[in-house]
Amino acid sequence: MPHQIIFITSTDTGVGKTVLTALLARHFRDSGATVAALKPVCSGGRDDARRLHAALAGSLTLDEINPWHFRAPLAPLLAARREGKRARLAGIVAHAKKFRDGCDVLLIEGAGGLLSPLGEGFDSRALIAALRATPVIVCPNRLGAVNQARLVLAALAPAAARAARVVLVSQRRPDVSSPTNARLLGEFHDPARIHPLPWLTSSNGAQVRRAVAALGKFLLAA
């Protein structure tokens, strides 16, 4: 299995990046792959990192998963400044590369949306470029999804945009646009790179696992 770096970003904060990252980590681990999952930077608590820690069954420590964490629930750049600290691109890239060669799949979750400032002078777009990672864009499948996904794709470098996967996350209460968003987005982005993800409930775990397995297969073939 070739080494893969997969970067999970999104159109906004709170749209399901951590849920998807944890699901992918469990899927790859259960499939026999060696997997690491990192959330290098977070602010406002470490719950996301703890979810990844659980998904990896403790194979990485919490501080390995999340070395830069800040208390204030603000963009990480501002939260770090409040504490007189700094996160720098070179340090985060070096940390990620420590895990790259020791696993088949390295998952990296960003904080906030693609252009949310993570540290001094960089964001998730810069990390994707520095790591040559395959972007996965998490987008709520609701009215506005096509615009939001296209804005993120347009913000990526052309090669990264062509390689990007868009995951449309079903909502607890779908709206009239939900059944049509994937088809319409497919007029602007390769339809084979658009993946629906069911809303996770206590009763549809098997359906969600099938969707995640399909996405995982495509990601390893990237």
Number of domains: 1
Number of helices: 10
**CATH architecture heading:** 3-Layer(aba) Sandwich
Instruction: Give a short account of the largest sheet.
Output: 6 strands, parallel
Share of residues in strands: 15-25%
Write up this protein.
This protein is an alpha/beta fold. It has ten helices and ten strands. A six-stranded parallel beta sheet has the order 2-5-1-8-9-10, with helices on both faces. The chain has a two-stranded parallel sheet with strand order 3-4. A two-stranded antiparallel sheet has the order 6-7. β6 and β7 (122-123) form a beta hairpin. The model has no long low-confidence stretch (mean pLDDT 94).
Core attributes:
single chain; 222 residues; alpha/beta; Rossmann fold; 6-stranded parallel beta sheet; two-stranded parallel ribbon; 10 helices; globular
Task: Draw up the topology in text.
Elements: E1 4-10, H1 17-30, E2 35-38, E3 41-43, H2 47-55, H3 62-65, E4 68-70, H4 76-82, H5 89-100, E5 105-109, E6 117-119, E7 122-123, H6 124-131, E8 134-140, H7 145-155, H8 158-163, E9 165-169, H9 181-185, E10 194-197, H10 205-220
Parallel strand pairs: 1-5, 1-8, 2-5, 3-4, 8-9, 9-10
Antiparallel strand pairs: 6-7
Please give a quick description of this structure.
This protein is α/β, with parallel strands linked by helices and 222 residues long.
